[in-house]
Fold this protein.
Amino acid sequence: MSSPLGLYQPGDSPLHRIPAGGKFLGLIAFATVIVVFDEPVPLALGAVAVLIGFVTARIGPGRVFRMMRLLLVLLAAVFALQWWLIGPESATVVCLRLLVAISAANLFTLTTRIGDLVSAIERGLSPARRLGLRPELLGLLVGLTVQAVGALSTIAEQTRQAQRARNATRSVSAFAVPFLVRTLRHADELGEALAARGVGETASEEPERPEHTPTRGGGD
């Protein structure tokens, strides 16, 4: 089943071959530029650049549509609200900015393995070990965050399919209850995996605070 978000799609395109660290820095720089611009024309050019990226990475239009359809629905609602509150030009800027930034992030995850991203972050932040930081934990945090977004989206899509199979598409509980149960089960499995890797042991190894010894009042 195709994920509604940009989980890694194997390939040998030029974007796939770019090292994960350089691609991650490029994504941060691109997102920063998108935030700085507040005119529709530069943002539209950014959208064209992302579209060229999808073509270069050989991501099919069907995959892009399935991945972006929920975002487009949300952006339509945001655009209507922003139009009513601050006018059409500002609404266009806000929605274009969101569309370009999220599309670029999806293009990144489609062409980058999570393991490569985690390794790149660990290597890039290794000098920070002298400051007491743990690059392996920061890399693991980024990797888990990206995977969690994809995992929750996959659970939601599978739950919707099961809901349609039971002919209960109009029932909120038919979606909410299984989605909540599967999400909690996924959280338990993730916690067990982290515990198996020793994450969290640092906190348990902290020295215990000395017990508070009550002082006797002067009037006793």
Q: What stands out?
A: The CA atoms of residues 163 and 171 lie 8 Å apart.
